[in-house]
Design brief:
The complex is a heterotrimer of chains A (255), B (177) and C (452).
Chain A: E1 2-11, E2 14-24, E3 29-33, H1 40-48, E4 53-62, E5 65-66, H2 72-78, E6 80-83, E7 90-94, H3 95-109, H4 117-130, H5 135-138, E8 141-142, H6 148-162, E9 166-170, H7 178-191, E10 197-201, H8 207-210, E11 215-220, E12 223-228, H9 230-239, H10 242-254
Parallel strand pairs in A: 3-10, 3-11, 6-9, 9-10
Antiparallel strand pairs in A: 1-2, 1-4, 4-5, 7-8, 11-12
Chain B: E1 7-10, E2 13-16, E3 22-31, E4 36-45, E5 51-61, E6 65-74, E7 82-92, E8 97-106, E9 112-122, H1 124-131, H2 137-153, H3 158-172
Parallel strand pairs in B: 1-4, 2-4, 3-5, 4-6, 5-7, 6-8, 7-9
Helix pairs in contact in B: 2-3
Chain C: H1 8-24, H2 30-46, H3 62-65, E1 70-71, H4 85-98, E2 106-111, E3 114-115, E4 128-132, H5 133-136, H6 155-163, E5 168-172, E6 182-189, E7 194-196, E8 199-204, E9 209-219, E10 225-235, E11 240-247, E12 253-263, E13 268-275, E14 281-290, E15 296-305, E16 310-319, E17 325-334, E18 339-348, E19 356-365, E20 371-380, E21 386-394, H7 398-406, H8 411-427, H9 433-446
Parallel strand pairs in C: 1-7, 2-6, 5-8, 6-9, 7-10, 8-10, 9-11, 10-12, 11-13, 12-14, 13-15, 14-16, 15-17, 16-18, 17-19, 18-20, 19-21
Antiparallel strand pairs in C: 2-3, 4-5
Classes of the chains: A alpha/beta (255), B alpha/beta (177), C alpha/beta (452).
Chain lengths: 255, 177, 452
């Protein structure tokens, strides 16, 4: 579904991604871990199409099409979803109104007829249950007045409503207490299917105890330096990221 | 509604002379490019038990500047007067500005005057967030503006409201990015 | 310097400092001794506060300061690690008084600032380390935690730093998520006038969580007990702390409670302060220092005041870095001839762009002779921020009262209902059911059937 080849990118004249190669197939959950500053969130921003990030080399294919050539809203309509690390507040635009519009745009792009009000309401109620989202919050302005935990749950609620084929979760676990974490993880697990895929970006291993990844990659200094399965996450939590620095120094020495 | 000239001054006044009279004022002022809008209201409470409500929403884009001056005057014989004023400003981008100057003059201590003012900004972050949910930039701005101005536009008779909405979107076309 | 005439304690401290410092700081590092000395100098210079000092303008404590107090933890009044049999049974009684029904927790019991292991839970979960401060301050590896004196420290905080001897040191290891909350019962008892100065330090490691409920109970008969408590809380990156404080001290208690919370990136601090009738004086100083970006802070408070009590809540939210969110809601119900003070300061530094700071203080003045001084202060030096504050003072809504009475509910009950409804905004934020039930029960207990 997603093929990243030799991706290099910079932001504010600083090279942040220095050659990423990654393949994500339908039905897979990939976790990306790494120390602060390794480029994790930057990777998410580049895939979503944030303007401040410039791709200097490499290519990304999404469903066989050139992703880097698409505007952010087109990438979204193609089925890419980013759960923001810091969701944005937009006062005056209600959660409901916003979702209706977004869903409308995506369906139009896929040549589907717009959803009628009754079906939308039904779908909304179903998906709210998935993330134990309070009905009251649904009518408020987008993310306004939500606590950190509520904002993250709202991201997953939107994910459930928009049904993307590839969802990137950018440090969704940060700021969540253990109860909220379980709810978010449960929601994601219920949405997993053979037709979609997830990239979970996280600094801590705890989320991966609830959302079990098929692959774990470690990003360090703009490159994926190690890949493995879920055991790798445990190893990292135990040994810390310093162990990585040692290893990568050794590797560099032997080349 | 203002959406045009280079400099606009507008100060409608309402005089609440009779007992139990009420006055309401709803306004949306839009400035863009280098426009300057200076608007305001004057509410004079003279009779007893008067009520007034002012909802003013300013939208500044480009290098526009919006100023709102509101005078609420409660006369000495205006027992039990009630006023609620809300002035909100919406800034699109980093180069515009909004200024609020409320003046409350009360000569009667049974009056209740409430004033609220908030300022919000539409920046790149908000637009990108909506883009990432499949909504293109033009539509994103329209969504935000309509949500913002809704409270005022709801007060207009249907035909006017539709016209007003169209006018708003035309005026703000291309104001982001 | 404000005149410290008529304050016997000031004279005592100044005259005995050298001797007391020598006794207390035995085995401490030289850095800590230096910190104490500096704190003492600040105290000597400032003395105790009077109404001429801005932060104490509405809080006149002179009448209580005029009494003499023995200073705990010193040669004249040793803190006593062992209690006599009679003392133990009194403590057990206090433990029962402070216990919260149906709460599944780990209990820590302190008597006059000293941790009594025998009256609580011995087995704490792995990842939570608890030490007596009397031990921790002598450990060179830990003594730096007690050296965080602020140049602005004066009055009570300076006095505490100069002469503290014991308290609780709690450290939560990174990544720890305890299965139950901690309940700390602070018991203060004395037969004669005494000043106690507990010092507590809590450290929550990266990505760790902790839920703490503190209860304060006291018994000093006809004597006065002055509690000058200072707690320093340090939250590392991604740490989360839920902190409930239930102040149910009794007559004779004069409580000055200072809490400083330092938040690192992405940490979350939820504070709930409940102050109920009983103590003569309660002065809470709660300061949240947001030292890194993307932190979240919620400060909730409910004060129910009665008799001739003076309850003062001073808060400070210091936004030093960008994108932090703070939300404050303090509500007061003032009965009889009590006095309430609320001062909420929100400071937004120039660097702190995209700050969201909200503050609200609502007061219901019921006693005809009750008074409230409410002062919100917003100092904003950044331009891309969203800040608001609101303050209200009122009485019962005549319309609401009439509506309830028109439905057959008697006046006294109607008022009780409205007070509970008023308090609901704060009590509904509590996450632990047993604690919420307990607080609601306490509130009902204090709402008068006949109004003042």
């Amino acid at each position: 579904m997603l093929i990243i080849k030799n991706l290099h990118a910079e932001v504010e004249d600083k090279q942040i991604l220095k050659g990423i190669d990654l393949t994500v197939r339908a039905g897979e959950v990939h976790a990306i871990m790494g120390p602060n500053g390794s480029g994790k969130s930057s990777l998410a921003s580049v895939l979503a199409g944030r303007e401040s990030f410039h791709v200097t080399e490499g290519e990304v294919l999404f469903h066989g099409k050139d992703l880097l050539d698409m505007d952010p809203e087109v990438r979204a309509r193609e089925g890419l979803f980013l759960a923001f690390q810091y969701p944005i507040e937009i006062p005056g635009v209600s959660n409901v109104n916003f979702l209706k519009t977004a869903l409308g745009e995506i369906r139009a792009y896929r040549n589907l007829p717009p959803m009628d009000a009754k079906d939308f309401l039904k779908m909304s109620r179903e998906k709210q249950k998935l993330v134990e989202f309070d009905a009251q919050l649904v009518n408020r302005s987008l993310n306004e007045g939500f606590s950190g935990g509520e904002k993250k749950r709202n991201e997953i609620f939107q994910l459930a409503m928009l049904e993307p084929s590839l969802a990137i979760l950018d440090e969704t676990d940060s700021g969540l207490d253990i109860d909220a974490l379980r709810i978010v993880a449960q929601g994601v697990n219920k949405l997993r299917s053979a037709d979609n895929a997830f990239i979970i970006i996280t600094h801590y291993q705890r989320l991966l105890e609830y959302i079990i990844p098929d692959f774990v990659h470690v990003l360090y200094n703009g490159r994926i330096v190690k890949s493995g399965t879920k055991e790798l996450a445990l190893e990292l939590e135990e040994k810390g990221y310093d162990w990585l620095r040692e290893e990568s120094r050794e590797q560099a020495a032997t080349i | 509604m203002e959406t045009g000239s280079a400099i606009t001054w507008k100060y409608p006044s309402v005089i609440l002379q009779g007992d139990n009279s009420t006055g309401e004022f709803y306004s949306v002022a839009v400035t863009r490019n280098k426009q300057i809008a200076d608007t305001g209201t004057k509410m004079h409470h003279i009779g007893r038990n008067t009520r007034s409500r002012i909802i003013s929403k300013g939208i500044s884009a480009g290098q526009g500047q919006n100023s709102y001056r509101g005078l609420v005057q409660i006369g000495s014989k205006a027992d039990d007067a009630r006023n609620f004023t809300q002035c909100d400003s919406l800034l699109i981008g980093d180069q515009c500005g909004a200024h609020t100057f409320p003046y409350i003059e009360s000569k009667n201590n049974t009056a209740m005057v409430e004033h609220e003012a908030t300022t919000s900004k539409i920046g790149e972050d908000q637009i990108f967030y909506l883009n990432q949910r499949g909504i293109d930039s033009e539509k994103a701005v329209a969504l935000i503006i309509n949500g913002y101005a809704r409270e005022v536009l709801n007060q207009l008779p249907m035909e006017f409201a539709v016209e007003a909405q169209k006018l708003l979107s035309i005026t703000l076309e291309g104001s982001v990015g | 310097m404000t005149s410290q005439q008529d304050i016997p304690l000031y004279e005592e401290v100044v005259n005995h400092w050298d001797q007391w410092a020598e006794f207390i700081s035995r085995s401490e590092t030289s850095d800590l001794r230096k910190t104490r000395r500096q704190a003492f100098e600040k105290f000597r210079e400032s003395g105790f506060p009077s109404i001429r000092n801005e932060d104490w303008k509405y809080t006149n404590i002179t009448r209580w300061l005029r009494e003499s107090y023995a200073m705990q933890g010193l040669p004249e009044e040793p803190s006593g690690n062992t209690l006599s049999v009679a003392g133990m049974s009194v403590s057990r009684g206090m433990w029962k008084k402070g216990k919260i029904p149906d709460l599944d927790c780990y209990t820590l019991f302190l008597h006059n600032g000293v941790w009594m292991r025998e009256l609580g839970d011995e087995d704490l979960p792995p990842g939570i380390e608890v030490l007596k401060v009397s031990q921790a301050r002598k450990d060179p590896a830990l003594s730096a935690w007690f050296e965080r004196a602020d140049e602005k420290d004066r009055y009570f905080t300076a006095l505490n730093t100069a002469l503290f001897s014991d308290g609780l040191f709690i450290r939560v290891k990174a990544g720890t998520v305890p299965d139950k909350p901690l309940h700390i019962i602070h018991d203060f008892t004395s037969g004669r006038n005494l000043m106690v100065q507990p010092r507590h330090v809590w450290v929550v490691g990266e990505n760790a969580e902790l839920s703490v409920i503190e209860t304060v109970v006291s018994d000093s008969g006809d004597a006065g007990i002055w509690i000058n408590s200072l707690t320093e809380i340090n939250l590392n990156r991604d740490a989360r702390l839920d902190h409930v404080l239930i102040q149910t001290a009794s007559a004779g208690a004069r409580v000055v409670n200072h809490t400083t919370v330092r938040q690192k990136k992405q940490s979350l601090y939820n504070s709930y302060t409940f102050t109920l009738p009983g103590a003569d004086l309660v002065r809470n100083d709660l300061q949240a220092r947001l030292e890194e970006d993307h932190t979240e802070t919620h400060l909730y408070g409910l004060y129910l005041t009665a008799g001739s009590q003076l309850v003062d809540n001073h808060t400070l939210v210091d936004h030093q870095k960008p994108s932090c969110f703070s939300n404050e809601l303090y509500k007061g119900v003032l009965l009889e001839q009590s006095t309430g003070v609320f001062n909420g300061k929100v400071y937004v530094h120039r660097d702190a762009q995209k700050t969201n700071a909200f503050q609200q203080n609502n007061n219901l003045v019921i006693g005809r002779k009750a008074t409230i001084d409410s002062k919100p202060e917003l100092e904003i030096f950044a331009d891309d921020v969203k800040c608001s504050h609101g303050s209200t003072v009122g009485q019962f809504s005549e319309d609401a009262l009439f509506y309830l009475r028109a439905r057959g509910i008697g006046e006294a009950t109607a008022k009780a209902l409205l007070i509970t409804a008023f308090a609901f905004d704060v009590t509904e934020k509590l996450k632990i059911g047993a604690v919420a039930a307990y607080i609601n029960q306490l509130i009902s207990h204090h709402i008068p059937v006949d109004h003042a």
